[in-house]
Amino acid sequence: MELTVYNIKGKESGKKITLDKEVFGIEPNDHAIYLDVKQIQANKRQGTHSSKERSMVAGSTRKLKKQKGTGTARAGDIKNPLFRGGGRVFGPHPHEYRLKVNKRVKRLARMSAFSYKLSENAVTAIEAFSFEKPKTKNFLEVIKNFNLQGKKVLLITDAVDNNVYLSLRNIPGVQLLKAETINTYDLLNANHILVTEPSFEIIEKIHTAKN
Fold this sequence. Notes:
Helices cover 33% and strands 15% of the residues.
């Protein structure tokens, strides 16, 4: 599997990069993707939501009225959930949402996500680049050169260049990740992925490791 390498002007550089089919050309595993994305989303939840049930609400436990003879429904104390200011029925309480997914499943999910994106021609290999100084205009020009205006773009680099990061951080829908920190959700969430040439070697090394 070969990809043409482009420069940031959107022109072919004359180089090609060969991708390992065992990493970038596998049969996608949808269940692995589901498990990994579910874990990523669950781990973002703080789980700090809380509510007060009947026993936690401050108030008297005195019975409000006699049991019979009032012509209305019987009632206990003022903390009854049916009354304003009463406790909440089966309300949420703080708890942990984090899930565990095995390394190999997460690795398979990332490879599956890459395979989907490559089959959709949504991955472009580019030469490693930098800017002399941070300017949003610089990266907007890169986006324009690849006709990616208005799309969610993920840039994967081998190292985070501060000038590049500062140039793209204010552009809606554009994200920068190091090759070592990519995840299934961000890969699938992007409409197009720009990958610097050295990043492919890092990604292959991570996803062909034995452990």
